[in-house]
Amino acid sequence: MTDGSESAAAADEQASIDPETLADRLRSGDELTVLDVRDRDEFERWHLEGEGVEAVQIPHMKFIQAQATGGVTDLVDDLEEPIVAVCGRGEASAHAVGLLRDAGIDASNLAGGMDAWADLSLARELEVDAPATVVQYDRPSSGCLAYAIYSDGEAAVIDPLRAFADRYVDDAADRGAEFRYAVDTHVHADHVSGVRALAERTDAEPVLPASTRDRGLAFDATSLSDGDELEIGSATLTAVATPGHTTESLSYRLGDVLFTGDTLFLEGVGRPDLERGDDGASEAARRLYETLNERLEGIPDETTIAPGHYSDAADPRENGTYTARLGSVRDRLAAFSMDEAAFVEYATSDLPPRPSNHERIVAANLGREDVDEETAFELELGPNNCAVAE
After folding, report:
1. In what order do the strands lie in the sheet with 178-183?
2. At residue 196, does pLDDT exceed 90?
3. Same domain? 62 vs 150
């Protein structure tokens, strides 16, 4: 027999879902209703989305009122089960879930709330032909991807997020590797870079594109241009100039892998308006067109594309990673079959809202504004919106 406390604990466990399990369900395309009990402005700023997800906002106060009147089921009459309830830290949503489950409704609570969801980072090794071990770090809350490269006891990270700097350090230590480089493909506008944080915690050299200095880089970093190389153990990382999303954008080649940053995604291309706004978007789109049709022309179709982001429209591989052969991306994306004028129109029209706080994030990543950990975390919450998706 079990006592009452054990039964309650079992019920609590059954009524909650951890962020990693939720990520698995979203990646599998499970249909579920996400019930967000935060206030409307918090919901509109950022809410949980995914294939098969219906997101609904009902403030927690309504559940408190319904508890007093006995009308909890009336609140969710139109919602499909199962329901996953969310709030900021998982407390208000836990109360709502308790009421729903008492009413016989299939509901569970996201443990830790949206804060825990934003803190989730998943690491998976890529199955690629490369002279090193490559690990993809996936932040499901925003679709941001970073990459660790390990070779002969040395390590580098491409496009690290500041929020997970300690995770990269700990993982490298577990593999007995020492950091050589922390590399950014470009000046990010959607998340705070971890390049300087890694340099502070390890012996890693911060590495950025050379023309980042033209954008006002305010800290010391190793500069790379087209064709420059970095040695990581016995592996060589080669810079490939791929401007368009930003003027300084570099991709990096490692064997048969091309880390494309925000230049090329599995389901779209980088938006051209984040650096110079609407006035400079057309010129940037023309540079991106040249990158796709001339600079990447000589790269074989068999090359594995490892992008800097993915969206809900992207399908992961069987092992959960987000990569694809360049040839399949070329065949799938209409952007590769357009003439220049059509591409410029496509890349500059009907764009989603720019990433929240993108100007402050750019300033932080250039070292022109100092932000503490809490502020950095708040600045980058929400979708990245860095792509022109098809």
Report:
1. 122-125, 133-139, 144-151, 154-158, 178-183, 205-209, 222-224
2. yes
3. no
* Angle value at C-alpha 28, between 190 and 352, nearest 5 degrees: 30
Neighbouring C-beta atoms of residue 349, cutoff 10 Å: 9
Query: Do residues 247 and 306 share a domain?
Result: yes
Q: The domain spanning residue 189 has which CATH number? A: 3.60.15.10
**What does the pLDDT average to over 237-266?**
97
Question: Pick from 248, 258, 265, 238: which is nearest to 366 by CA?
Answer: 248
CA distance 378 to 333: 33
Domain boundary among 117, 134, 158: 117
Mean pLDDT score of the chain, rounded to an integer? 92
Is residue 113 located within the same domain as residue 134? Answer: no
Rounded to whole angstroms, the Cα distance separating 101 from 99 reads: 6
Q: Given the structure tokens 């106060």, which residue do they identify?
A: 61
- Estimate the crossing angle of helix 277-290 against helix 340-348, to 10 degrees: 140
106 and 135 share one domain: no
pLDDT at residue 4 in the model:
37
Region class of 147: left (phi > 0), else alpha (psi between -120 and 50), else beta: beta
Give the pair of three-digit tokens for residue 72: 């909890």
Residues 96 and 83 sit within 8 Å (Cβ to Cβ):
no
- 364 to 3, 187, 251: CA distances (angstroms): 53, 10, 22
CATH code of residue 14? 3.40.250.10
Pair (56, 159) in one structural domain: no
Residue 254 · residue 237 · CB < 8 Å? yes
Residue with the two structure tokens 């443990």: 111
Query: Do 262 and 384 sit in the same domain of this protein?
Result: yes
- My answer on whether 65 and 130 are in the same domain is no
Structural tokens at position 1: 């027999």
Task: Pick the last residue of a domain from 117, 139, 160.
Answer: 117
Domain of residue 59, residue span: 4-117
What is the DSSP code (8-state) at residue 175? T
**147 has pLDDT over 70:** yes
Tokens of 111: 């443990």
User: What is the pairing mode between strands 222-224 and 229-232?
Assistant: unpaired
